[in-house]
Amino acid sequence: MVDFQIGDMIFQLAFIAFIILIAMVLINLFRSSRKRKKQLDELAEKVDALQSKLEK
Question: What are phi and psi of 5, to 5 degrees?
Answer without folding.
Answer: -90, 155
